[in-house]
Each structure stands twice: as structure tokens, then as C-alpha cells.
Amino acid sequence: MIIVMLPGATHREVDGVVARIEAAGLRVHVSRGEERTIIGAVGDVRRLEPEALQVLPGVERVVRILHPFKLASREWHPEPSVVKVGDVEVGGDRLAVIAGPCSVEGEEMLVEAAKAVKAHGASILRGGAFKPRTSPYSFQGLGVEGLRMLAKVGKSLNMPVATEVLSEEHVGIVAELADCLQIGARNMQNFALLQEVGRTGKPVILKRGLMSSVDEWLQAAEYILSEGNHKVILCERGIRTFETYTRNTLDLSAVPLVKKLSHLPVIVDPSHATGRADLVGAMSKAAIAAGADGLLIEVHPDPPKALSDGQQSLRPDEFGRLMGELERIASAIGRPLTGVCHSGSGRQNSGRQAGSGRAAGMV
Amino acid sequence: MIIVMLPGATHREVDGVVARIEAAGLRVHVSRGEERTIIGAVGDVRRLEPEALQVLPGVERVVRILHPFKLASREWHPEPSVVKVGDVEVGGDRLAVIAGPCSVEGEEMLVEAAKAVKAHGASILRGGAFKPRTSPYSFQGLGVEGLRMLAKVGKSLNMPVATEVLSEEHVGIVAELADCLQIGARNMQNFALLQEVGRTGKPVILKRGLMSSVDEWLQAAEYILSEGNHKVILCERGIRTFETYTRNTLDLSAVPLVKKLSHLPVIVDPSHATGRADLVGAMSKAAIAAGADGLLIEVHPDPPKALSDGQQSLRPDEFGRLMGELERIASAIGRPLTGVCHSGSGRQNSGRQAGSGRAAGMV
Amino acid sequence: MIIVMLPGATHREVDGVVARIEAAGLRVHVSRGEERTIIGAVGDVRRLEPEALQVLPGVERVVRILHPFKLASREWHPEPSVVKVGDVEVGGDRLAVIAGPCSVEGEEMLVEAAKAVKAHGASILRGGAFKPRTSPYSFQGLGVEGLRMLAKVGKSLNMPVATEVLSEEHVGIVAELADCLQIGARNMQNFALLQEVGRTGKPVILKRGLMSSVDEWLQAAEYILSEGNHKVILCERGIRTFETYTRNTLDLSAVPLVKKLSHLPVIVDPSHATGRADLVGAMSKAAIAAGADGLLIEVHPDPPKALSDGQQSLRPDEFGRLMGELERIASAIGRPLTGVCHSGSGRQNSGRQAGSGRAAGMV
Amino acid sequence: MIIVMLPGATHREVDGVVARIEAAGLRVHVSRGEERTIIGAVGDVRRLEPEALQVLPGVERVVRILHPFKLASREWHPEPSVVKVGDVEVGGDRLAVIAGPCSVEGEEMLVEAAKAVKAHGASILRGGAFKPRTSPYSFQGLGVEGLRMLAKVGKSLNMPVATEVLSEEHVGIVAELADCLQIGARNMQNFALLQEVGRTGKPVILKRGLMSSVDEWLQAAEYILSEGNHKVILCERGIRTFETYTRNTLDLSAVPLVKKLSHLPVIVDPSHATGRADLVGAMSKAAIAAGADGLLIEVHPDPPKALSDGQQSLRPDEFGRLMGELERIASAIGRPLTGVCHSGSGRQNSGRQAGSGRAAGMV
Fold it and tell me: How far is A240 from chain C (nearest CA, A)?
């Protein structure tokens, strides 16, 4: 941290800043220039916030040099982390596609959706049991009943399942029944919930908040990591801007950026980011090309009948076509899709055999 | 709700939309023009989301006509609501100033801060026991211990107290010990927490999220109201924009706007909005002039020593000077400050006697 | 400027940075710490952009310490500047209200509007002859003909006139006929136009761009100032955010902020910021309370018939009522409105006599 | 356009709206429901702005149904437009890469840069002669001298050249010497400049403004098109958001979106969007995968010595590697790069022979 003093800062003011830094257990380096005195604070500056120094008399500006996160950073963990969801690796050599309906609406539709996404190469099944809805009058999900359906269907198809948890109260049951917990964008800074999922030790998909900077996102991950749970998958899902044609603005540059700053895997959710089924394909392809470790895509057997987010859900046939296109791009960048045979028995999905691999993987 | 069909929409597509609307229990009015067919849905459209229609074949656009909130709306409740926090009215003829330190750091400092803000005319004491911090390594508040201190100090000075609740788990204890619960900006769409505070029946200050539209804010209020708790105070505290000189951008136009859309009282928090003590005064005055029902201001006996948000906290003397200026503007617009003698016994706070009134109010 | 080197930066890399700084004519101060080397660049850093150093090998981060503007800064010119538009002072003890129709639509309506705003206390007449329209199919203004009408009406009523200039080509004629040139938000970084108006020596109202940071705004002012024209009036008119109820989001905190950073007067345009006549009053009052030096308000004799911006224009009677309310707030903060008798002879506009003062000022 | 009347709107108010619509030459369709009256306006609604109706008594809301642009729309021109810059097609089967230095700094460096980008497969040379700089103290470009250098180098290497025009005054000379004019983001709504370049008939790259919606961008294109110049290439270059790691936020979803709304070609500038050389590669690949018709990439022989934007410029070898990666993705999506042999004689750049095709194309 560097503290720039005001032009006329007194010796006493400089001493005040030095004392405050030393009181936090850091070392100090003072450099008196002709125009200004500049003070460097050396040590674990996470113990001292810039704001605490900003307010001291004589201080013009405080500049943070180190990133405000540690366990999530590349400096701390230079190799990319691979997070296993069931048997599926996220962040490894292959790309993972997580797909399924926005909400679990019933067992029949879920089975239909799950079979379809598996057939087309998705390796993890998603489905919402607890739904965060802007309006209290909207469909709120089937709750624990939906969760049980999801677990059952995932088991029967040998697909690990991921689902959102909204409330501290439900973390226990979700961790018991699902293979992966999801923290939604609106809860990215629900710190009580972050700590609670941190204590479960289960893989967590942490969506970026609509309003969250990359620094805040990685600090939210730090909340989970600092509880001892290192299985965090980051998910870019669009930020809020002034543009209204799309629901949010997918910030794809966050993908290569975060992969530089952090060792955690990064996936992309083009369905929520755009809010439009007709843009999901293009943004899925772009996400893969930008270096994402996977995708989270909403697929519904009959989107017009969906109880939530039908406008952004793909039909199974659309999803199938998209997966074909994604495989070509995935091969071009040397990272084939994980495919359905993640347990290793069947599918040999190297770049060479991508096409036949996918065919072999069909149900 | 108005559904505009695509230029070439077929009769069958029109019928599909009509069927879907009627299935939701609404009446339908179809208007076939030369170029397009337009369908109106009449009834409680809160039972049917625009997105559900958007996805139907042949639909070009769905336009919501009614607001997506009901209990929070002026149509539902034309008269402005007055919310009582202890004996202090928020939303009535007088302006309420809620002040105190960002965090409860200890009893001594809290007493000092509380006496100071009361002496200068604040009528409700604020102080954070549970602190939402971007980093897990920052001071997280004294928790229940801090909450007990706050309750004790408030009682001893006869000031109702307001404090933030972060976790569903703590709603019970906070509702027991505090007079008013605060939902922070980052939790504005933590729906589980909203429902939980809705069940307490206690006054709730609902801060606007950093990237929440006014519609979303009022729908968040609707979550609390629909649990039967009508004591909601809205608090504008800045939205996130590209400008970096200030922590957020205070959206003061939201004050008169929300007062048109809703009957709920609206207060303003210039401390968090600007993040700079040197702008708090100007924005407090502007908020009053814009029609806010009150202010939420951070005051610390010694800001450079604050464990959080020192850079935006006023010193007691600065707060005192500001209160003098606010009284003049409050008088000019005909809404005097609530002052300390809110129970009516002492203070004659007319514009004329503002100065002496304030002196009389001192402890 | 401070250059923070990467942890393992070599001596050669440090020397490279030093050489680059010295080549720009600045002095260098190198401080080698245990973990990092920090380099300070002293002198007129405006000759060296941070980006030019950021790209050098071994550099982690470059931190600008000084503001990127000079002539616009308070350090350069500690006293507030007063800009005279005709006989009316902007930035002095009194508040200036600039009012009139969005567009000059014809002489008759202009006379009617001008008489009304003058009667109610506006001191400068505004009216658009060249209109910047998002669509090429919208009414583009009457051009030079409208400009001549404006000049004529202003002269006949003894009111200085302000009008927007859109094109370098028209700077000459506008400077000849108007007392004050306005640069619109969309042209804030039209550098060719800024330089051109800088060369006229005429007062310029420089609106903040919808997308412009305060630093960029003051650098745009610097373009005008550096041409030798010091008569710049800054105008906050809202920035673009995600909120859609209002056309833009009025950033009132920019008013006290810019008055700290710069000596230039700052006025506020609540009409364009909100885009809604029903919010103009509240935001005008808030702007005055926040410390603005004046207001720019759209008034139209018959808003429903306006050829542009009718939805945000006040009727003359609404404007009159608002001026009464503004006077009370202006008195409360000790800065009476300029009124019509700006040449000083007539109006005694103390807080006490605000009402009669205004009456006396009527035409 | 649909006009929704307020619940209690009178017959007279309805008649007022009808009269206004008919006065604009449109037909009217009135639908009186139980709760509200809804009025449809049929015809060329571009002659009537929603705002003009919004202000009429009794109107609750005006909803635009048609897009506010016409010549730029897909409805008007269903087939994608191909714009030829010199001999290079933009918007056709092949992808065009426009590359070169941010500024023309001298002939020697320009020749070096141009040879390098041509050798690696760029087909159009870019270089700035007139530079829009935030600060008046920054390097402003070599002006006409730089323009002449650019033209000369382009000619000698048989590459068409593109360069920005900042001022109406320079449109003539730029149109004379360059093959393609560029309108920068800050001038996207400089309507005088748009009209001026519209009159030249030369290809125009129209960059999206930092805070411009897609609708505004297409209306800006409409300004050029409506002057009779149909050679408009749209360029997404990032919008302004709250994120600060990147200079702007590249809105890649705008690519497939705009290609649905408009027939005009869309290219992407990852250099300005991210402001960081280390993100240019990933975003270039993503842009191609998202469906962009081309890229605009800054390449400098020695970025640390660049007079502008060095931090975002690629070195020639980095550019070469990137082009190799882009070719693989381009082949995967079936749209090979235009390559250097745009005049048709040499390069057979089918997906099959992408590798050898590029080698053959080298200088």
C-alpha cells in the first residue's frame, strides 16, 4: 500500500500515518520527495484497509498495490485448480457443459430434459428447486420436493446435479442431495450464505453479481475459500448496463482476466446473461473461444410452457445443434467437450475423434 | 399487459397467446389491425409474467402496463404511510435524522457518539453490530455483543435504535433487541432474509441495491409487505456507475419518483452513497430539498480511529453544524426536523426558533 | 506519478523506466524496498501519460497522483471563477436561472416563453436553434433563422441568450449572435468543436457527457481554457445508468465535488437529466441545496405542442411556482436568485424580503 | 406506436391524442377496454416521436413498436450488406482483419507495422493521423502529414487504408486520401460529422459510443445512410461500465444482436475495448466465434515506444501468433480470413487449406 501525503503535510501528520501502519503490524518505508512525502506499507496489508488510512490527517491518497484477495489468487496458487463435480472435472483439459431446465417443474419434464441434454453431450444436470424471483408473486420453485426429484433423476442418469441455494436454512439439505451448490448473482455478497456453503466442503458455483466488480467477485470467493472449501467454480453471467435489448451484458473479457488473476475455474452462463434464446448460441461459442472452462445453459423440453425463463431456454434440438458447433470450436482451440461419458468407460473424446466421440456418447 | 404480435402472425399463434392468458385467469381483448394484431390482457397480470408470453410463437413484444408491485403502490394505498420507529415518526410532517457510528466498536465510543448525535437533533440511533464486509479479512462487527450494547445505550438515552441484519439466523435476536431492522444494499434481493424480516412485524429500513432499478426495489419491499409487515422505510444510498470519485452515485431523483409510485417513506443515506465525509453535507441538504423523509448519517467521535467507514463519517462537531444548516432548509420547505424531543413534550422546532430549539434539545 | 515495479523487476527494467521519465523532462526518485521498487516521477507529468509507462517491461502499475487537468483546477486558480453572460454573473453570490424553450419554434412562442421566464425571475434566455437529435428524421431546429429570432427576442427583453452549437461550421455565427454558447452532452468530447469555441472568447456552457467521468469533463473544459477562453460554465445534466424511469440519472454529488476540484461555476439542468416535468421541481431544489451556481430549465408556453422535449418542459405557471420555492431555499442557504434586475439597480433580494423582492422583479 | 391512456382518461383526452396522431399523417385505431383505452398509431411513426405524445393530457404511457431506424434495418434490407474497402469485402464470406498502429508516428515505423500486419494476414491497414485525446496536452497525431504517409504506405503495399476523421473540416482531405473513414466512439453522435461523411460516399467505420445503446448506434448509422451513403461498417468497441480492470466492457452480445436487427456488417475492436494487450487475443477469438465480420486490432512494432495506446497494442510476433489461432476458429465456423491476397490473384483460403493458405499469403 502506498500513502501519498498532501503537499503541505506536516511531520506530525506523517508520523501519525506511520504509527497507524505500525500498529497494524506492518513495516513502513518513508520517502520524502521535494513536493510530497510518500509512505509505503509493507507486510500483510490485508490487515489494514486503505479507507482506514485515507481518513488520517495529511493524507491525499491511498493506493492499494496488492490484490484484496489471497486464497483465490494466482500468486497463492499458480496452477489452475480443477474442481470435481461428481466425476466431472471443471477447469481441466476438457470443457464442461452444465445444462437443464431453469426450474424443476415436475419429474416427467425433468427426466425428458435430462435425457436430452445428456444425449447431446452435457455432463452435469442443472435445475432450480429454490428460485430467486424478483416478485413475491412469481413461481418460487418446488423447494425440497424439487430438490429430491433432481437428485433422483441425476442418479438414474448417472449425472451429477447442480442447483441453487437461496437460504442458509437450506444449505444442509441442498449439500446432502446435490453434487454442486450454486450461489446466484443476487446473493454473491450474501456473506452469511457464502460462509455457510463454505462450511459444507461441496463444490460451489459462484455467480458474479450483476453489480459486482471482478475484485468483489474474487473476494466473495475468498469468503468460501477461507472457510476451507477450495471447490469454487466462478460463473460469469452478465453485468448490468444501460443496454436494454439484452437482459444483462455478458462481460466475456472477465473470463481471460479472471483466469490471470485467479486459479479458479471460470464458466459462463449465456442464458441468464442475454435473457434471449436467440443469442445463447453465439455467446456460448464466444465464451469457449475466450477461454471459459465450461458453460451453464438452460434447456427446456417446451420453452413456451416453462414456469420461469422460457424466453431464454433452448429446445433440446437447438441445444443439440449448438453442441455440434461448440465441438468444432472446442477442437479448434484444443479443449474438447467433457461429453457424457465422463466416468471414463466409453467416450474417447480427443480432438481428433470429437465427432465420432459425440455420436458414441448419445443415449 | 399488451402483446404485440409479429407482422405475419397466424390465427393459430394468436389463439395460442389468448389461451395462455385465459389459462392464467385473465380476460383477453384482441385488436386486429391492418399490420399487426394486438392483444390486451386484463385482470391481475401479476399472475402472468411478460416473459412467459414473450416466448410464445408469433409474439413480437410484450409490454407491461401495470407496475409489478401492488402493496407498495400508491394506487393501492394513496395516502403516504408513516412508519413509527419507537416514538419517532418517519414519513410524517417532520424529517427524521438517524445517526450514529458505522460499527458499534465498544460501549464507551457508542455512548459518546449517541450523546453527540442526540444533542444535535438526531432522533434515532444507528450502529452496526453485524457488518457486511467485502473482504472476509475485514472487521466483521461485534455481533450479538454489539447488538446488546446498542440496545442498552439506546434505552439509556431514550433513543430508538436501528441496526442491520445480515443473516436469517439473526433476525430473531435483532428483532428482539432493536427498534428497527435494516436490510443492506447487498441483501436487497436476499429474498429469504426479506421474508424473514417480513414475519417480525418490526420496522424495516430497506436500502436500495447498488444496481437495483426502482421497480426491483419496490418489489423487494413487496416481499416484506406481503408477509404482513407494512412498516417499510425505503432508503436510497447510491447506485453503481462508472464515476470513481464517489463510492456510488446518489440517485436523488429516485426520491420524488418513488414518492409518486409508492406510499412508503423514503430516506437517504449520503454517507454510503458518496463514501466521502466532505460531500455528506451537500448531499444531505439536497436530499431534504428533494423531498426525502429523513436521513441516515454516519457520525463517529474520532473518524480516523473508526474500524470501518471512517472516511465517510462526520465528526460530532461537523454533524452539529450540518444539522443547523439542515434546519434552515427544512424550515424553508415547511418540514422541520424531528429533533430529540420527538415525544412532543419539549421542542418547539419552528423555523423561527430553529437555533434556540436546537439548543434546548441538547443533553 | 508513481510507478510500482513488479516483484522481480530487474535493474535494467528499472533503468528503462527511469530513462523514459527523464526523456520526458521529469525528475525521478527511485525507492528500492525489500519487495518492490517504487519510482516517483516529479515535474509536469502532464507531459507523460500513465499508459506510456504502463507498457514498459517490469512495470506492475502506474498511479497518477496529480489531476489530469491544470487550468481548470483549484490548485491553479484557488478562487471561484465568476463568468459573466451579458450582465449576468454565474458563479457569484447570486444564483442564475437560465430558462426558455427547448427549441426555438417560432418568434411568437419564443416571445411568450421569454416574457414568462423573465417575469418569474430567470435572468438568461435559452432556446435551441440547432438541435442534436438521435434520429435524422426528428425536427432538427430552425437553424440560423431560429438563432436570429433568439437574438432579437433576447435583445428586446434585455436578456442575454444562450444556445447550443453543434457544428464547427456554425461557431462563428453563433458566437456573433448569442451571448453564450452551449456544448451539448453528446459533443463534450468533440475536441474539434471544443477548440473552436475556445477560440471565440465567448462564455461557454459545457454540459457533462452522458458517459463522462468528472476527470474527462474537466479535461474537456481544459480544451477550451487552453485556447485562452476562461469563460467556461460547467453543467451537470445527468449520466447514463441502468435506471429507466428517468431519462438519465442526475449526479448531484458532482456539484460539490467539482466545486472542490475546480474554480469553474457549475450549474444543473434538471430538465434533460430527468426527462420528466414532474421531477424537475424537486431536482431544481436539490441542485440549489447541493451548492449549484444556477439552473438550466426548459419552459414552454404549451408543452404538449412542443416540437421537442415537451415531456420535460414546465408550463410558465409551473415555472413560476417553482421559482417561488427556489427563492425560499436560496435564501435559506444565503444565495438569493439573480432575478431579472441583475444589473443591481433594483432588486433587494434578501432572505427576509424574498417574496416582495420577487414581486418587485416582475415585468 | 401504442398509446396507453390513464385509467380515468376522458373522451376529450382521447380525442386530443387522436388528433395529434392524425395531424402527423398517421392512421389511428382506438380500442376502449373496461379499464383503459388503448390507441394504436399506424403508418410511418418515424414522423411522430413518442415523447410528443407522452406529454399529452390523459396519456399514461407510449410504447414504440417499430424500431426507430429504417434504412439500417433488416426489414428494409433483408440480405446482409457487403461493404467494399478498396478490394476487400467486409461482411461477406470471409473475415476481414484491419490492423496497424494506433497513431501514425512516422513513415519508417508505419512501413514496418504495415509490412508485418500484411505478412500475417491483415487485409486493411489502419493508422491514426488525427487523434481524439482526452487531454489537450496529449499527442494529437501528425494530422494531414500523417494522413499522407498512411496513404503512401497503403498504396506501396497494395493495402486499403482506414483512418479516423475528427472534424468536419477534415472530411474532404480524409475522403480523398483514405479508402475508409472512421468515426470514433466519442463522435458517434456528432451529427454534423455524420452528415458530412455521409455526403462523401466513402466506406465509413462507425464505432459504437461508450454509452450508446444499440438503438442509438443504428440511428447514428441512419444519419449516414440517409445522406445516400450505404457503405457503413459498424464497430463494437466496448461500452462503459463500473468495471475498472478493463478500459471498457466489450459487449460481444451486440454482435449477433445487431446482425439480427440490421443488414450492416459488424466488426469488433478488442484493443480499445479492453485497453490491455494481454486480453486482445482472447477477445479477438471470441468476437469471431460470436459472428463478427472482422476485427480492428492495434499492432505496433515496439509498443513501449508508442506515442499512444502502447499498452493495448500487440507486437508483430504476437499478432502473427494470434492470426494463426484465429484461422483455426475461422475455419471451424466456416468463414476463413480474408488474408492478404484480397485482390484475388493468389490465396486460396478455404477452411481445408487454412494453414498453407496463410503461409502462401506471406510477404
Answer: 7
Q: What does the alpha-carbon distance between residue D120 and residue D137 come to, in Å, rounded to a whole number?
A: 35
Q: Give the position of cell 423582492.
A: C357
Residues 6+ apart with CB under 8 A from C169: D168, D192
Q: Which residue has the higher pLDDT, D341 or C172?
A: C172
More confident residue, A29 or C275: C275
CB-based contact (8 Å) between B324 and chain C?
no
In the three-class reduction of DSSP (H, G, I as helix; E, B as strand; rest coil), residue D108 is classed as helix
C chain contacts of residue B243, beta-carbon cutoff 8 Å = 213-214, 239, 251, 254
Q: Give the minimum alpha-carbon distance from A363 to chain C in angstroms, rounded to a whole number.
A: 45
Return the ∠ at Cα A147 (arms to A141 and A152), rounded to 5°.
135
* CA proximity to A67, closest of C11, B137, D274, C30: B137
Q: What are the backbone angles phi and psi of residue D234, rounded to the nearest 5°? A: -85, 145
Q: Where do the structural domains in chain C lie, given as residue ranges? A: 2-63, 83-361
Q: What is the mean pLDDT of chain D?
A: 89
* Cα distances (Å, whole numbers) of residue D285 to A338, B55, C19, D95: 21, 31, 36, 12
Cell of C193: 468543436
- C50-63: per-residue pLDDT in tens? 878 888 889 988 88
- Residue D121 scores a pLDDT above 60: yes
Q: Where would I find the beta strands (DSSP E) of C140-246?
A: 161-164, 180-183, 204-207, 232-236
- Give the best-scoring range by mean pLDDT among B16-30, C35-49, C300-314, D89-103: D89-103
Inter-chain CB proximity B328 and C328 less than 8 Å? no
Provide the shortest C-alpha distance from residue B290 to chain C (in Å): 5
Residue D7 class from Cβ within 10 Å (0-12 exposed, 13-18 middle, 19+ buried)?
A: exposed
Do C136 and D211 count as a contact with CB atoms less than 8 A apart?
no
pLDDT digits (tens, 9 = 90+) for A56-103: 889 988 887 778 899 999 989 999 999 999 999 999 999 999 999 999
Query: CATH number of the domain at B83-360, please?
Result: 3.20.20.70
Interface check for D66 against chain B (CB to CB < 8 A): the answer is: no
CA atoms within 13 A on the CB side of A298: 29
Contacts of C249 (CB under 8 A, 6+ apart): B239, B241, B249, B251, B253, C238, C239, C240, C241, C243, C273
Chain A positions in Cβ-Cβ contact with residue B49 (cut-off 8 Å): 135, 138
pTM of the prediction? 0.90
Residues on chain D touching A247 (C-beta within 8 angstroms)? none
Q: Which three cell numbers stand for residue B299?
A: 457520525
How many B/C residue pairs have CB atoms within 8 Å?
123
CB-based burial, C22-57: b 16+ in 10 Å, e otherwise: eebebebbebeeeebbbbbbbbebbebbbbbbbbbe
Comparing CB atoms, the residue among D33, D63, D241 nearest residue B29 is D33
- Minimum Cα–Cα distance from D68: chain C residue: C135
Q: Residue B245 and residue A202: Cα distance in Å, rounded?
A: 40
Cβ–Cβ below 8 Å for C2 and A31 = no
pLDDT tens per residue across span B54-67: 888 899 888 877 78
ipTM value: 0.89
| Res. D34 pLDDT band, cuts 50 70 90 | low
DSSP run (H or E) holding A196: helix A191-200
CATH assignment of A2-63, among 3.30.70.1140, 3.40.190.120, 3.40.1010.20, 3.90.70.10:
3.30.70.1140
Please name the member of A16, A51, A310 whose beta carbon is closest to the beta carbon of B52: A310
Question: Is B307 within 8 Å of B131 (Cβ atoms)?
Answer: no
Q: Is D54 on the interface with C (CB under 8 A)?
A: yes
CATH topology of domain D83-361: TIM Barrel (3.20.20)
Find the distance separating the first CA and the last CA of chain C, reported in whole Å: 56
